[in-house]
Design goal:
mainly beta; globular; 1 helix
């Protein structure tokens, strides 16, 4: 089992326990074409929106990506509505070291990434707005790996991000225990939010996540229980409940190989008897079209 990058350290648990189920869009169209000369075009269009007490709507959004690969070089140009443009160059010197990758983009970021079977290291310098140096490291092997995520502001001479994580797992993806720290204070070093979660796959169709979090500045504890049930090859049901009284569920069904239907809802039980303007109930409906 290959090592994850730091942002995906506990992706399975985060998707179940912490991800907002109710989509911020009503419909999404994904069009992808890849030619024999390694040119790839990906166009996404979506209609933003949300239903219920938090109902929102806005203009059509989307993004388009053009990616071209030639030998060790990858060029990617991206446009995101309404007016975000980016250009990224990736160089993987396979003849020199196949585990090394250099990335440059027009936002003023330069990154060096090194992947090894027992370590992943990413160092990034960002010059736009703030002079920042970011470092992400994941190291170890079954049954234990460790992660470190730091952000250092060159202008202020201070760390504004200091996260770490540890994972104990069986290497099969059936059982994982993760401890994480998420910093919340960008001005001074202080403990932020500690999370410990446990993922267990009961069988090929059923999995559970239990999470305990402790917010040090607020002295607050939260418990979250979530589950994922694959009814069949085309249908998945997710659900979660936490100690703050929030209950959420997601129904995801593939109508065919090109269309996926999502229906989700979230209710805040503590606000059910509040005013009509309270954000006690939200639901989302999303159609994903892929070609």
């Amino acid at each position: 089992m290959s090592l994850p990058i730091y942002k995906d350290f506990s992706k399975t648990q985060d998707d179940l326990a912490n991800k907002f189920y109710c989509h911020s869009r009503i419909a999404e169209l994904n069009f992808k074409v890849k030619s024999e000369d390694n040119t790839e075009v990906n166009v996404k269009l979506h209609q933003p929106g949300q239903f219920g007490a938090n109902s929102t709507s806005s203009n059509l959004g989307g993004e388009s990506t053009l990616k071209y690969k030639y030998d060790d070089l990858t060029i990617e140009a991206k446009t995101k509505l309404p007016s975000v443009h980016s250009l990224k160059l990736e160089v993987t010197p396979k003849k020199f070291n196949k585990d090394l990758k250099l990335t440059l983009n027009n936002t003023g970021a330069v990154a060096v990434e090194y992947k090894h079977k027992k370590a992943n290291l990413n160092v990034e310098y960002v010059s736009q707005k703030e002079d920042m140096v970011n470092l992400a490291l994941v190291a170890g092997s079954t049954p234990a790996i460790f992660g470190l995520d730091l952000g250092y502001n060159l202008k202020t001479g201070k760390f504004n991000r200091y996260n770490f994580a540890m994972k104990h797992y069986d290497g099969t993806g059936n059982s994982e225990l993760v401890l994480k720290h998420l910093s919340t204070n960008k001005e001074a070093f202080a403990f932020g939010n500690f999370l410990i979660n446990y993922y267990q796959k009961i069988n090929p169709t059923l999995a559970f996540v239990s999470e305990l979090s402790y917010n040090v500045p607020k002295n607050a504890v939260q418990v979250t229980l979530s589950s994922e049930h694959k009814v069949d090859d085309s249908t998945t049901i997710k659900s979660k409940v936490n100690s703050d009284g929030k209950i959420a569920a997601l129904f995801r069904h593939s109508l065919n190989r090109n269309i996926i239907f999502n229906l989700s809802a979230e209710v805040d039980s503590k606000q059910l008897h509040g005013s009509a303007s309270s954000n006690q109930f939200v639901y989302g409906m999303l159609f994903e079209f892929s070609y």
